Records
---
Amino acid sequence: MNYLHEDIDAMHGELQMWTNIKNQLLNEIHKQKRLSAESNKPLLAQLQHLQEEIRKRQREISSIRGNILRNESRIKELLNV
């Protein structure tokens, strides 16, 4: 019976050790996530800027295509007259 209490105490100590290690690792993970998020902010801002530039250029391309189609239609009308 004496050994049972010693085993329980040893297991409880080991449980505490693993719980502490888990908590330390979780804290490290959270710290690394924060650092990663902070270091990614400039890249995310640049990405957002580039995506807006792409949308702007796509609108310009669509507008120019529309002008080209209208001009082609007008040229056909003038040639058929």
---
Amino acid sequence: MGGRKGKTAETERCPGRSSGLDAVVELETLRLGVEGKSLLWHTLLALAPEQAHLDESQLTDLLDRARNQIDTLELLRRTTAAALFSVQGNRRSPRVS
């Protein structure tokens, strides 16, 4: 519990400041949202042949865009996580000159 209290106190002293881990979680949350959107486009695309009001070309474009967004978010998440854990690792271990 002591560690939790220290973290809370640090957050209270610096309102609005988020940890690097918050950025990773935000990117993961965005990715989940885009994956949900991708599944929607995929489902509508499967229904398009029977539904005249659904434009297969537009749905394919939306699905491609969602996949590109997923790739971009994953790259950002990996880069952010690697930088975060690299910085944290440097803080924990002393540097040898």
